[in-house]
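Incident review: delayed structure delivery

Summary: a single-chain prediction request sat in the queue longer than the usual turnaround. Root cause was a stuck worker, restarted by the on-call engineer. No data loss occurred. The affected request and its eventual output are reproduced below so the record is complete for anyone auditing the incident later.

Affected input:
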Amino acid sequence: MKRLILFVLPLFVLSGMNAFAQKAKSEPIKPRWIHKLPKPTNNTFNYEIDYSVASSLDDARKKSLAGLIANSGFENGVVVVSDYDSKVVDSQVVEDGKVKDVQKEEFEATSHIKGGEVSLHIKNIAEYWERDNSGTYHLTKLYAKSTSKTAPMFDNVTATTKYGARGLWRSMIIPGWGQFHKGSNLKGGLILGGTAVCAAGIVFTEGVRADYNTRMLQTYDVNLIRSYQTKRDNFTTARNICIGATAALYLYNLIDAIAAPGAQRLVVKRQDSKGNNYAFVPSVSMEGAPMMTAAITF
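Output delivered after worker restart:
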């Protein structure tokens, strides 16, 4: 039984050492949007990913934006690049393929859009970077880019590492499943493997305990009875330890599934034709009847 415990514990120690030895990165887990782009809710824009490498994070961001503009076939004009929840919009004036930064207030950028002077509109959605041992930054950025010269109606997008009940109910069914769903594959594998080892320990120790108990009842030799009884009690203790370890690991699995952050994911709030955010939420009427309520943000 001691070997079993000593085998399970180093797995968690090694996982911590492995995470510590990894190169610097903006998020502990790669975001989900890197592998699967969100779908735009209207046809005025598209989501695009751009990858760039530079010696500094600021240079990587500039290189990424320049690459996105160049790939759009945009050589001359005005490009408005905005960040969500930002009061300042950075505009880029493109002349002969070269980008010049011009910072404008948001209402000024809006007037450009209404006046039809903006040919390309880009919104910064999210980014993920890694820095290798040489100090080089590997940047992956997610943009929303307009598909026409008219002002796009971008989605209201927020990035989060919270999963709530999405991870909890999975881990309640299969320990580690919630962690896999959140992108914590190593942690999920350790929890699933540790639970399997502990469960195997319960089956093994209970089988041996029952065998010694049967032998003790089938003999009249006092010395054998004492020997079998001691061994039965030892395996009873070992079985109880395995049960306790399984319960503790399962409880940790549930707490981690709902509380620990996962891979960054995007939450898209739908908008109506006027750009108002809306969502349908369950509620209860004054008479106590269940109903659905439309929550609209103007």
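Verification: The first strand starts at residue 24 and ends at 25.
Action items: add queue-age alerting; document worker restart procedure.
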